[in-house]
Amino acid sequence: MNYVIQFFIILAFSLAGEVLNFLIPLPVPSSIYGLVLMFLCLEFKILKVEQVKDVSKFLLGIMSIFFVPSSVGFINALPLMKKYGLQFALIGIVSTVIVFAFTGLVTQFLMKIKNRRKNSSVKSEEGNLQ
């Protein structure tokens, strides 16, 4: 029964994402809205990890099944890939490099901010001790 409840919690966030996608006219997939909502609820301790942990592990374990439809679609687009395959590959490689670089830069920036906060809190604690 625990698995059913956990699955319905995840489905509720998915439904909330669909509703937000309908209400907010941005080009953002509804799944992203749902993931952001779940992240915020987990971050602010509204939802505990244990409430979705078991089903999340199960869904991650079978994630490859979710890619079967896109693989079949890719096979159906084989004539298109033969014609424009080089352009698709180039776009894929360039966009991957851009995403890697951007992710690395953002991570470094956030780590610097975290270190500054950590250092400033240590200095203020040292000042309070003296």
Describe this structure in words.
The protein has helices at 2-23, 30-43, 53-61, 68-76, 78-129. It has 130 residues and is mostly helical. Helix 1 (2-23) crosses helix 3 (53-61). The termini are far apart.
List SSEs in N-to-C order. Answer: HHHHH
Q: Biggest sheet, in brief?
A: none
Shape: extended
Stretches with pLDDT under 50, minimum 5 residues:
none
Rg over alpha carbons = 22 Å
User: Would you tell me the structural class of the helices and strands?
Assistant: mainly alpha
Strand content: under 5%
Q: Which key features would you list for this structure?
A:
mainly alpha; 5 helices; 130 residues
Write the layout of secondary structure elements.
Layout: H1 2-23, H2 30-43, H3 53-61, H4 68-76, H5 78-129
Helix pairs in contact: 1-2, 1-3
Please outline what is shown here.
The longest helix has 52 residues, at 78-129.
